[in-house]
Amino acid sequence: MNVDKAQLKVAVIGAGPAGITAAYQLAKAGVEVHLYEAAPQVGGLAKTINLWNQKVDLGPHRFYSEDARVNKIWLEVAGKDYRMVNRLTRIYYNNKFYFYPIKAFDALSKLGAFTSIRCVLSYLYQKINPTRQDGSFESWVTNKFGKKLFQLFFKTYSEKLWGISCKELDDDFAAQRIKKFSLGEAIKNAFGFTVKKHKTLVEQFAYPLGGTGMIYERMERFINANGGKVFLNTPVQRVLKTGKIVTGIELITGEKIAYNHVVSTMPFTAMVKQLPEVPPHIVDLASTLKFRNTILVYLNVDGTNLFPDNWLYVHSENLQMGRITNFRNWVPEILNGETTTVVALEYWCFDNDPIWTQEDAALIELASAELNKTKLTQGKPILAGYVHRIKSCYPVYNKGYKTRLKPIEEYLNTLNGLSVIGRYGAFKYNNQDHSILMGLLAADNIIKANKEHHLWDVNTDYDNYQERFIITATDLGLST
After folding, report:
1. Are strands 469-471 and 476-478 parallel, antiparallel or unpaired?
2. pTM, to two decimals
3. What is the mean pLDDT of the chain?
4. pLDDT digits (tens, 9 = 90+) for 256-282
5. 175-200 as b/e, with b when 16 or more CB fall inside 10 Å?
6. Contact between 101 and 203 (Cβ < 8 Å)
7. Residue range 155-168, pLDDT digits in tens
8. How far apart are the C-alpha atoms of 376 and 150, rounded to whole Å?
9. Torsion angle of alpha carbons 332, 333, 339, 340, nearest 10°?
């Protein structure tokens, strides 16, 4: 049953894909919605910034979904202002490039005969004597690919990203990101035996002509033009409640504002710990959950055609960086006619790691040295650098984290007038499409005054689409 929209007043905390989509949908429905963003720009992790007269994202952001609801809203906002981009993503390891997701013959041929035989034997051994599953990423991937391939293509990168041993990383990360893919499936794909292509094998994605952030900038303009308000540079301190009823928000300035409903995408742990009158055991559980930070070092290289990939995963142990994005290989519109190449090198860390507080100049020097070491610059000079830090952007899936997260989820579900969504807000390693879907469903729950959609289920079993439609060069097409 729909509610009287004239009586609704909703606050949305955070203007990333989840929060701004929720606000956009509420504004479309005629609900009074106020969107609060701590930064001077909307888009969150999917914002687009201007550097050296070019547009760049915060790392690689491809848009792909088979959910008709998600694609419909994306196309509604993008209109015709997008292109389909051919995806090339490879692993850089020991000065060689391997396709990602792994293509069996490509990987085995480049590893050499001896190592390839060891990889195949290691995989076959797992088929006969499977590794006991202990809930870790290491045991899960070893079963799927064999111990040798795990060590070559999963261990180093994963430990760079998460800052913990793969023995301590929860297998839920693998279940979400790798799912049913295995060496056996890669071999079947090579021979053309797989009927349905696995989602991680997507070879094209949609990309806005103004960068990923264009979508959210257009949503911002719509909200402001249709009765809502977007407040930039306005951090929210906490969500307010009385008993089990959420009553509004408190800004960092101390100002308190009343609302009927609050949609929060602020970092999950901070939101929970700052709620009034939270049971101590819930606070203690929230304190065990951690986020990982990202440092992006952008380098402007005086050259074109450096390497053909959209992005590279860096598995080499002698390099600190984990990923390189080449923005020249997305759409020409973001280049603005410039003849240099902007690349972004990613470094991951916790708050207490020395690199997090390192001077920008030192980080640019480190990134420049590492990029030159790969020889990807082809000897072209690096003209300039820029550092962008992102705090708390990866929820760390420590082994058993779900058993600590579940009681917090159950407690939050007892509060009336609160929705927590997004990568930050729900402590979920979302892609854009997951967060957009969370925003859509949260808005729908508010408008209908029920909890028909269980928001925590998004990005849990995301293969269960109601309809499978993908964005094509012209519109929506049926996914086969």
Report:
1. antiparallel
2. 0.91
3. 89
4. 999 999 999 999 999 999 999 999 999
5. ebebeebbbebbbebeeeeeeeebbe
6. no
7. 999 999 999 999 99
8. 26
9. -90
Sorted by sequence, the CB contacts under 8 Å of residue 218 that are 6+ apart come out as 77, 78
**The residue count for the chain:** 480
- 392 contacts 346 by C-beta, under 8 angstroms: no
Q: How far is CA 334 from CA 49, 51, 52, 400, in A?
A: 10, 10, 11, 42
- Mean per-residue pLDDT, 285-313: 96
Interval 283-297 mean pLDDT: 96
Among residues 1, 46, 2, 41, which one has the least CA distance to residue 424? 46
Between CA 425 and CA 469 the distance in angstroms is 27
What the block records as the tokens of 200 is: 């991680």
Torsion of CA 119, 123, 124, 126, to 10 degrees: 140
Letter for the amino acid at 309? D
Q: Give the Cα separation of 477 and 480 in Å (integer).
A: 9
The whole-number pLDDT of residue 155 equals: 92
Is the bond preceding 276 in cis, omega lying within 30 degrees of 0?
A: no
Q: How confident is the model at residue 425 (pLDDT cuts 50, 70, 90)?
A: very high
Which residue do the tokens 């984290």 mark?
A: 401
> Do residues 273 and 287 make contact, with C-beta atoms less than 8 angstroms apart?
yes
* 174 exposure class (CB count in 10 Å sphere: 0-12, 13-18, 19+): buried
